[in-house]
Input
Amino acid sequence: MKKIFEMSDEELFEIANPMWSDLVKYSNEENYGAFTRNFSSAFMQGANEIEIGKQFARAKLTKNLSEEIINLGTIRRGEYVTVLYKQKNKKLEGEWLGRLVLGYEKDKLKIFGATLF
Output
């Protein structure tokens, strides 16, 4: 099996884009359980359900995200790959930088970080 850090950008996008799409969808729906389903156990420990719920409730950015995927590139560092996205919101003007960090946990590909700047 090819390791994630050995994959081409195109191969990484094929894996990462559905995960990013799920994060966008479930963020728009404020669905915590589905939003965190691909998180690594380490990332889950930092993803407090109450705090994420508050973020869903307060943050205009985390709702009405555009489903359009605009890939910017990848960064490979050690055992992890960061996939970068240009993210738009349907109600807020401008663009944001999306960051999805992927790696392996017990031979299964998981999300080790996800942020929107």
Notes: The chain is about 35% helix and 30% strand. The two ends are 33 Å apart (CA to CA). The beta strands are 70-77, 80-88, 95-105, 108-116. The mean pLDDT is 89.
